[in-house]
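Re: beginner question about structure tokens

> Can someone show what the tokenized structure looks like for a real chain? I only ever see the sequence side.

Sure, here's an example I had lying around. Input first:
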Amino acid sequence: MAVHTACAQSDEFATWTGVKLNYKVTSRWNLSGAAEFRSKNHLKEADRVSLNLGAGYNILSFLKLEGLYEVHYRNRGSEGWKFRHRYLAGAQGYLKCHDFKLSLREFFQQTFFEGDVESRLRSRIKIDYAPVSWKVQLYFSVELYQPIGEDVFFSIARMRYRPGVNVKLSSQCSCNVFYCRQYEPKRSANIVGIEFSVSI
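And the corresponding structure tokens:
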């Protein structure tokens, strides 16, 4: 409750726009790449531009290992634009029931910026509703960011609540439109995003 109260004092509006490419190497292996642009401060400023490369391996029909490397070029306000980079590694499990799919993803994330290292555990639960006859997939996810360290591990660094719609444009292309409510100890944000995905 304390986190939500503090965040409500400094809400802002932001946008995320991205393009993602997925390449299926084999029935188990896939590669991915993505580019994203983010705005902040009620669309008045650019926030960051990012690029990432990732890989995934399905060890079982319901369990996937994933890894990702990202580079960010961020607007640090009075400090100007700065580079930072991070990697993520983890696993995602799936459970399907008729038209519903429930997934749980756990990522370990480390971010490097000007000699500092920030480590976090990212836990996300997501439910999808996607009837076979539909070209539209509805989903809702909740993601928790926890700092890793002796004194801060059980604190909440960030919460994200994201409902969205994924529209299948063709056999290879889709468009994901979402709203994200993000809470942090010092601020919160209302984010509208759109991401185009191409699978080859």
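Each token stands for a local structural state, so reading them left to right follows the chain. Helices lie at 2-7.
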